[in-house]
Task: structure prediction
Amino acid sequence: MWYSLARSALFRLDPEVAHDLALKSLAALGPGASLFGTGTSRAETRHMMGLEFANPVGVAAGLDKNGEYLDALAALGFGFLEIGTVTPRPQPGNPRPRMFRLVEHQAIINRLGFNNDGVERLVANVARSRYRGVLGINIGKNFDTPIERAADDYVACLEAVYASASYVTVNVSSPNTANLRDLQSPALLGELLSAIMAKREALASRHGSRKPIALKIAPDLDEAGIEAVARLALEHRIEALIATNTTISREMVAASPLAAEAGGLSGRPLFRRSTDVLAKLAAALGGRVPLIGVGGILSGADARAKIDAGATLVQMYTGFIYRGPSLVAEARRALSS
Result:
């Protein structure tokens, strides 16, 4: 009830303004935010990538780009948090307006463009937080870094966040940075993963700890693209795949007056497409690389469907915007049975 009232007020505001206000309000609650979460039982624990997750329901990257709200989000009952996408240098992202609600579809279109305060600020924010659970940090390239130099940005971010992260996610699938998705082509992805994994080995020797690397992919890959990602994940010994990011397709929302807005579509219309990609990845990998399912989760049944399609863990973002903390508890219940 309380969230439906809050959402009614927030949805009268610009989506990006409402997003920032909601997170600031959660942070202002301090320890009181834990009233919206629930305690964790050992039965909910999951093991993946050599890590122990308090429960299988996590926050997807994008909700907290700069790692400013870790304590507030953890209090809502999530089993793990992923922050970012972060780039080596701060950047403002694309011009506003750049975020649009399709309320009738329980969806969002965004073309934010990796707006963030830069990797140094994110690392400082993480150091100030009290959160000690599993933390993923999602990394990308600056918009003005040429695609042929993209590996430089990813390697720089990996080095900067390595000591702070439980795992690091390589984001090559956002549609809102020009040419970024070209990095999913087999040749470019192979080169990028070679550079990242070589850097990870050097950092593991330096820090005495080998941090897992995850790769986040788009839902718009064809079957050949999915097979290529699976092959490269095995070849480069990636520890996890995250399926999926937002979609550039509009076939599910073609009747919406906002359908022509550029950017990635998330929420309910993404569910079937992202789950289909997840299932195809699971079939191609045969259990050799674990999967995190994300995209269109708006109920406990949706979370269960991701697990049934082959995921070990799930993440949410847009569904959380529409449903609030009750969705976290509902998904946890659905996955505990």
Q: What stands out?
A: The chain has a mean pLDDT of 96. The chain has eleven helices and 13 strands. Residues 300 and 334 are 5 Å apart (CA to CA). The longest strand covers residues 80-86.
